Amino acid sequence: MSKKIEVCLTPALIDLYDIEESIVVVIDILRATSSITYGIDNGAEAIIPVANVEDCLTYADKGFLLAAERNGEVVTGFDFGNSPFSYTKEKVGGKTIVLTTTNGTKALHLAQKRAFQVVIGSFLNLDSLCDYLKAQNKNVLLLCAGWKDQFNLEDTLFAGAVVEKLRKSFAHFDDSSVAAEDLYALAKSDLRKYLHKSSHSHRLAELNIEEDVVFCLQLNTCKSIPVLDGERLVRL
Q1: CB count, 10 Å around CB of 197?
Q2: Which reaction does it catalyse (predicted)?
Q3: Does position 82 have pLDDT exceeding 90, yes or no?
Q4: What is the DSSP letter of 201?
């Protein structure tokens, strides 16, 4: 099979792609998919992504941890949001977390409807993810969660990092892949410096969570690949 890799720059465009036989990689670098990867790597039993805060509350009596983020902040009354520092072994080991975020969980649900398989990507598990995708006889769609259906830099940069690593293993690329890889080539020597230009970086700076941003840009600190199994994200 001649495999192809494509980059969907925003969830608003996902209906333009045929993904029934594709592995879709959901990307929300700041911070949902980074936190999900870190949590699964730290022994969380499962993470259940839900669309909204009300859905999250329906799990309140099941003994799960409830995590809700909107516009970068923890929703009042929830255990935590989507800061990776909330997903340590001490907090999440052996636990199930129900999570809703502004962008990442929406992208997950859109992918889930049609994709052959949905996995989670972040800089934290870049090599493990690429090794897995290389070994599968499937097309790949890199789905950037963006910001409220708009393009964003950090997710596109990660997509570019994946394209760069997979270029020799795939035969066909779309223009979005080319653009993402070129952007990554510009930024990779100092991702944090490059991302100071991004709108989301400025939003997060106003919330005083620079440590989160730096954490999410680390390369290959995790081996786990979270995969969607029914409604639950579990370790592949």
Answers
A1: 10
A2: (2R)-O-phospho-3-sulfolactate + H2O = (2R)-3-sulfolactate + phosphate
A3: no
A4: H
Give the CA distances from residue 179 to residues 158, 182, 224, in Å, rounded to whole numbers and listed in that order: 12, 5, 28
Interior/surface letters 23-39, b for 16+ CB within 10 angstroms, e for the rest: bbbbbbbbbbbbbbbbb
Spatial neighbors of 223 by CB under 8 A, at least 6 apart, are: 41, 125, 128
Chain length of the chain: 236
| List of residues 6+ apart from 189 with CB closer than 8 A | none
The model's pLDDT over 146-182, given as tens digits with 9 standing for 90+, comes to 988 999 999 999 999 999 999 999 999 999 999 999 9
Nearest residue to 48 (alpha-carbon basis) of 101, 88, 7: 101
Using CB atoms within 10 Å of the CB of residue 20, give its burial: 0 to 12 exposed, 13 to 18 middle, 19+ buried. exposed
Burial 212-227 (b: 16+ CB within 10 A, else e): bbebbbbeeebebbbb
In whole numbers, what is the pLDDT of the chain averaged over residues? Answer: 93
Name the pTM for this structure: 0.95
Q: What distance in Å separates the CA atoms of residue 52 and residue 174, rounded to the nearest whole number?
A: 32
